[in-house]
Amino acid sequence: MSSNKRWYAVYTKPRWEKKIHRLLQEKQIESYCPLNRVHRRWSDRIKVVQEPLFKSYVFVRIADADKSTVRMVEGVVNFVYWLGKPAIIKDKEIEVIRQFLNEYQNIEVQPVNNHIEPGIKVMVERGILMGRKGIVRQVLNNRVELIIESIGFMLIAHVDKSKITLLDK
Q1: Tell me, what's the pLDDT at 79?
Q2: Whole-angstrom Cα distance, residue 135 to residue 152?
Q3: Do 116 and 158 contact (CB within 8 A), yes or no?
Q4: Average pLDDT for the chain
Q5: Would you state the torsion angle of the CA atoms of residues 98, 99, 104, 110, taken in this order, to the nearest 10 degrees?
């Protein structure tokens, strides 16, 4: 029975991660809310508190038939989608997160695309320039200025960071 269950990421209301994890467990749904041990300073003390590692995300391990039950849990916004379908998370990736959290505390999470800098090769994933490769010329807040060489001319396009992916060097 458990062999047809897969891990999915669920998007939650802000600051509802722990609450949703508890509600899912009450419904006998296997869930995982990775918690990061963080040092917080108050005026009179320093305390170690547990905060969700991924803000507004909880992982659930369910069969396809249980998706509607998960969506009906108060505070659940929806599943995280990839290519038009709920994104499947590999068992191995969940285990890596668990092991990492057992070893370390005060972990910082950063999206991979935050490391875009001039000179890096990228490909546009969405929009009118989809599929085009280019070199980052300049990073401007949430936009990237790309150099796209085409038919002997250099085209410079301003593309939203969310629409590009890094290519191997």
Answers
A1: 95
A2: 15
A3: no
A4: 86
A5: -60
